[in-house]
Amino acid sequence: MTGTRASRRNWSEMGAQPFEVIIPQETLDDLRERLARTRWPDEVAGAGWDYGSNLVYVKELTDYWQHGFDWRAQEAKINRFAHFRVEVDGVGIHFIHERGRGPEPIPIILTHGWPDSFYRMLRITPLLVDPARHGGNPADSFDVIVPSLPGYGFSDRLTERGMTPSRIAHLWARLMTQELGYERFAAQGGDIGSGVTQQLALDHPDSLVGIHLTDVPYLNLVTFYGDASELSEAERKYLEEGRKWGQEEGGYAVVQSTKPQTLAYGLNDSPAGLAAWILEKFRSWSDSDGDVEKRFSKDELLANLTIYWATETINSSFRVYYEPFHNPPPANAGERVEVPTGFAMFPKDLVPAPREWAERFFNVEH
What we know:
The chain is α/β, with parallel strands linked by helices. It has 14 helices and nine strands.
């Protein structure tokens, strides 16, 4: 695909600076001391996970966090990737940038969601960068850019208002075109990342060769102005299932989008509390059949948790929930994305949207 590659400028000629993930030892020592002093809550007998994170499993996981987990080993794995930081419109952004190993790699920016971090993308990045090494076609290689959302990981923790998906999309466009020098690129996202990617396609369609999503962004429910009677049976079922899911499972989002500061005091102070809040989502939102370690190892769960803990970003991570619900939607909200769009809709996802719903908002190619 032509017109997608950046000129081979040296990093010294650009604003981005190489970055290494190193958590101070005193932070790790303090983490273990806090885990040792955890004051555990009680639990209803036989409750399992009905009331939230199961006490037995949280104790098991945090005991391993305290006594067995090797952050330095995870840190070494993380630092095998090429990390950078750059200031974009006054916001410090951490990102991974891995050059594709193929004849003409397509640049792609991968945007994570909550309670994820850039760490989640480390599994797929090598497959995209070097498909030939994994049994694929080298012509399908990508230059992979994985930023940490503002307020997440090693990007800046912002204390001003207004960091909406639209604002983040603007930062991503600047990162890709002005800082990294790509004329055109692809974009992928899920969860919060899907909303950012949709807005990127609405605001910067000429810069995008295509987008890929793992869900239809929730904001489309809010901005749907059509006649509900025109919806298909599958769409009506989807909306009803979404409503039920919100009543049963959406309490976290209500808190994070209304009073996040109140919640943050406990989670920023207690690693066990942070683990319980995030762990329950990894279990219930994955195809795990109730066994979270069927999909994620303890080391993977704790690497992600340690990033949140060490960077003290749980509070700032909540703001991408708060801001969209306290700022007017962008003027083009609800408009149809004409950039070619692909979806991966997994049958055991929370509430998979039918194709006809996606086609109301996107130029769905597959």
